[in-house]
Amino acid sequence: MPRTSASPPTADSAAPAGPSADSALTHGLKQRHLSMIALGGVIGAGLFVGSGAGIAAAGPSIVVAYAISGLLVMMVMRMLGEMSAANPASGSFSVHAERAIGPWAGFTAGWSFWFLLCVAVGLEGIGAAQIVSGWLPGTPEWAWVALFMVIFLGTNLAAVKNFGEFEFWFAALKVIAITLFLVLGLLAILGVLPDTDAPGLTNLTGDGGFLPKGMDGFIIGLLASVFAYGGLETVTIAAAESENPVRGVAKAVRTAMWRIAVFYIGSMAVIVTLVPWDDPKVAEVGPFYAMLDHLGIGAAAQIMNVVILIALLSAMNANIYGASRMARSLVARGQGPAVLGKISSGVPRNAVLFSSVFGFACVLLSYWRPDDVFPWLLNMIGAVILVVWIFIAASQLILRGRTEREAPEKLVVRMWFFPVGTIVALAAMAGIFLLMLRQPDTRDQLLATGGLTVVLIVIGLVRQRRRGGDGVSGDGGDGTAGIPAQRK
Question: Are 263 and 47 in contact (CB under 8 A)?
Answer without folding.
Answer: yes
